[in-house]
Design brief:
The complex is a heterodimer of chains A (160) and B (203). Helices cover 12% and strands 36% of the residues of chain A. Chain A is mainly β. Chain A has a six-stranded antiparallel sheet with strand order 4-3-6-1-2-5. The radius of gyration of chain A is 16 Å and the shape is globular. The relative contact order of chain A is 0.23. Chain A has two helices and eight strands. Chain B is mainly β and 203 residues long. Helix content of chain B is 5%, strand content 30%. In chain B, strands 1, 4, 5, 8, 9 and 10 form a six-stranded mixed sheet that branches. A five-stranded mixed sheet of chain B has the order 3-2-11-6-7. Classes of the chains: A mainly beta (160), B mainly beta (203). Chains A and B meet through strand 3, strand 4, helix 1 and strand 6 of A and loops of B.
Chain lengths: 160, 203
């Protein structure tokens, strides 16, 4: 296996999901198709060369070619999530590498039934599975149990 | 790839200067103790717990909980680094050095596979776990290790990413061959040195 190299994604769309969470759509030329449930590592570089990395789940299904969506919840004392939610705009570039993780994944051909359990922003990788199920035309029996502190905090409320 | 790239509008927010030199590249300082596990938390009662060394040994060696706890133990204070990016400093553990355990068998092997309750495995070269580098620990900060953190006993190999420090470890299999363990088969690096950022395949 070759190294998972750092590459650039360009922000093509952003959408607030709740008051504290935002979906960022990225065009990633040459993106290797991911599996629903996988994540990427994101790296930020400041002007003085200071770098930070974090991992974020991919919310979009593998059917979106060369495009991924990350949904990020803003943590008050965070270093990366406030940047992604407050600062990152359409046209910005974001350095990332992936897809990562070969365990917590689901593909329609695996079949079911599918029982998905999430709390808070833990919904994100499961949403990739739900979207993949729909896009792949799968009719696998699926249940989502999703816990949220407040009604207003439910991510993807309209889509669900 | 990133030569000269600057993330527009990004500025350092954390103040970690007092720990500079102790946080490997790409890691951040964590004061809590996150729980990450691939499967369900294991709950093995102590009367059913034992620890064994199997594989390329002259004779399989097995200790009950009481026998294990009677072995010479050490207290170590180490920094730990999880591949999910958090690092935690000055964690204190008590347990048995793998040097002490392997001293009690005659073996011919270059690798170990740690095998845990629940089926988790991780592989390590022998020279990465001998010479005061690895322990089977049963206490954290002076208290028995909580089940969600791998109690009653877990492997501790602090110089490698923490997925190598298998929770709920029950046996070590000695082998001539390096067999990839659970995460090592699923995209994660076979070696896992945090200072070289050996996170994934090919790093």
């Amino acid at each position: 296996m070759g190294r998972l190299n750092w590459q650039f994604g360009e922000v093509i769309e952003t959408q607030m999901e709740t008051a504290r969470s935002k979906s960022v759509s990225l065009a990633v030329p040459g993106w290797i198709d991911h599996q629903a449930g996988q994540h990427v590592d994101v790296r930020l570089t400041a002007e003085d060369g200071y770098q930070v990395e974090r991992s974020y789940s991919i919310a979009s299904p593998p059917e979106d070619a060369e495009r991924i969506v990350l949904t990020v919840e803003r943590l008050e004392d965070g270093e990366v999530s406030p940047y992604l939610v407050d600062e990152l705009h359409v046209g910005d570039k974001l350095e990332l590498r992936g897809p990562i993780g070969g365990y917590f994944v689901w593909e329609a051909q695996i079949g079911g039934p599918l029982l998905l359990v999430a709390g808070g922003s833990g919904i994100v990788p499961l949403m990739a599975m739900i979207r993949h199920r729909q896009r792949a035309g799968s009719n696998v029996a699926t249940r989502l149990i999703y816990s949220s502190r407040f009604y207003e905090d439910i991510i993807y409320r309209d889509e669900l | 790839m990133s030569e000269g790239f600057i993330s527009r509008g990004f500025h350092r927010r954390s103040q970690q200067s007092d720990v500079s030199g102790r946080i490997p590249p790409g890691q951040y300082l964590e004061s809590g103790f996150p729980v990450l596990t691939a499967g369900p938390t294991q709950h093995t009662p102590l009367e059913k717990w034992d620890f064994s060394i199997v594989g390329e040994v002259d004779q399989t060696k097995r200790w009950t909980w009481d026998e294990f706890r009677a072995l010479p133990h050490e207290t170590v204070t180490v920094d730990i680094h999880c591949v999910t990016k958090w690092s935690k400093l000055d964690t204190q553990w008590e347990g048995i050095s793998l040097d002490t355990l392997l001293d009690q068998v005659v073996f011919d092997a270059n690798y170990i596979i740690a095998i845990s309750d629940g089926g988790y495995t991780t592989n390590l070269p022998l020279d990465e776990i001998m010479g005061g580098k690895a322990w089977i620990v049963y206490a954290y900060q002076g208290e028995p290790i909580a089940p969600e953190h791998g109690g009653p006993a877990r492997l501790l190999v602090p110089h490698l990413y923490f997925w190598k420090s298998a929770k709920w470890v029950r046996s070590l299999k000695l082998s001539d061959q390096d067999e990839p363990g659970f995460w090592e088969s699923l995209g994660y690096n076979n070696h896992g040195d945090p200072w070289k950022e050996e996170r994934y395949w090919g790093d």
